From TrEMBL:
Keywords: 4Fe-4S, Iron, Iron-sulfur, Lyase, Metal-binding, S-adenosyl-L-methionine. This is 2-iminoacetate synthase ThiH. Pfam families: BATS (PF06968), Radical_SAM (PF04055). It comes from Gottschalkia purinilytica (Clostridium purinilyticum). PANTHER family: 2-IMINOACETATE SYNTHASE. Residues 67-305 form the Radical SAM core domain.
């Protein structure tokens, strides 16, 4: 069994008809429960539940403090390369886009690592495009060997790997995987991924589980909001996280809620996702999965990130740059997408403290 079996159970479910039969009483009963099932979660994502956002948010806040305390873990992304073999309509690294391609040398990786760590950041997320012949597992492994001199936690957001490849990187020092399914809708997935290895829906869908089998410490999953209806994407993201939590209890599971941002290319979201929609997604998820981490990136604005922080968020990026080597070289670089919140580490920490929370720069040590 894989998550695809659970996905298949619900993929043709008529959510609109289901939502038409939900009453206020249904939502009120869910709010009295300590443990929610899949249908309860689906109801909390409904239009009817929008009338109960305040009590849901209060409960989400309480559960988050109970399981995570008033802490926010900070990290920053480092782009190693932007070579790519895919044609993804929504991505600036699309192989058809005429952008300057670059891969950092190991010397440049070390310089970038030294610069970022000097700001206090101890959790790094490294990213590449999907070009396995260029950004090979061996290249990434060499980068990890440098990065672990400067960081206590190394996460990867790269192309899907097999179990042996994940094991190799984990043994080198990688402890976390971020991989977005982009959309759980198979039809839309095929429509927006024109060519390249990323067209393989199932191989990507099963990637988090392969990493779990390889004994990675944590995985972070999500959908790129704007490709399908957000309530469906939120539902399947929650089901996926629940599946991984139950089957691999040794793994820390988190979700992200990224929305499509301006980038090189002319793709526009198929569906608009509002701030209110993101809030409902996060607070509903918190009630369904109290132990699940929630990451909000610099795709969102400073004001929105400050306001949503108490509602279930556990991790935030800061001082982000989405170009290759962009932390130390800010000239003539192409971003994968434009970030929205430009706060540096110092300002982020100051604002988090003002909101009554503790910023965390170092969560654990690599043994």
């Amino acid at each position: 069994m894989s998550f695809y079996d659970i996905y298949s159970r619900y993929k043709d479910f008529d959510i609109d008809s289901f939502y038409n039969n939900i009453s206020d009483k249904d939502i009120e009963l869910i709010l009295q429960k300590d443990i929610l099932n899949e249908i309860d979660f689906l109801m909390l994502l409904s239009p009817k539940a929008e009338n109960f956002l305040e009590p849901i948010a209060l409960k989400a806040n309480s559960l988050t403090i109970q399981h995570f305390g008033k802490t926010i873990l900070l990290y920053t992304p480092m782009y190693l390369a932007n070579y790519c073999t895919n044609q993804c309509l929504y991505c600036g690294f699309n192989t058809k886009n005429d952008i300057k391609r670059k891969q950092m040398s190991l010397e440049e990786v070390e310089a970038e690592a030294k610069y970022i760590s000097s700001k206090g950041i101890k959790h790094i997320l490294i990213l590449t495009g999907d070009a396995k012949d260029i950004s090979s597992v061996e290249y990434i492994n060499s980068c990890v060997n440098i990065l672990k001199k400067y960081f206590n936690s190394i996460s990867i957001e790269i192309f899907p790997l097999n179990e042996d490849e994940y094991s190799k990187l984990i043994k080198s020092g990688v402890d976390s995987l971020t991989i977005y399914q982009e959309t759980y809708n198979e039809y839309i997935y095929d429509k927006v991924h024109l060519k390249g290895p990323k067209k393989d829906y199932r191989y990507r869908l099963d990637a988090p589980e392969r990493a779990c089998k390889s004994y990675i410490n944590s995985v972070n999953i999500g959908a790129l909001l704007g490709l399908d209806y957000w309530r469906k994407e939120a539902f399947f993201t929650g089901l996926h996280a629940n599946y991984l939590q139950n089957k691999y209890p040794h793994v820390e599971v988190s979700i992200s809620t990224p929305r499509i941002r301006p980038h090189v290319g002319d793709f526009s979201p198929y569906h608009i996702v509002s701030d209110k929609n993101i809030v409902q997604f996060i607070v509903a998820l918190r009630l369904f999965l109290p132990r699940c981490g929630v990451t909000i990136s610099t795709r969102e604005s400073e004001n929105f990130r400050n306001n949503i922080l108490p509602l279930g968020v556990t991790k935030m990026s800061t001082d982000s740059n989405t170009s290759v080597g962009g932390h130390t070289n800010k000239q003539n670089q192409t971003n994968q997408f434009n970030i929205c919140d430009t706060r540096n580490v110092e300002k982020m920490m100051e604002d988090i403290k003002t909101l009554g929370y503790q910023p965390i720069l170092k969560n654990w040590d690599i043994i």
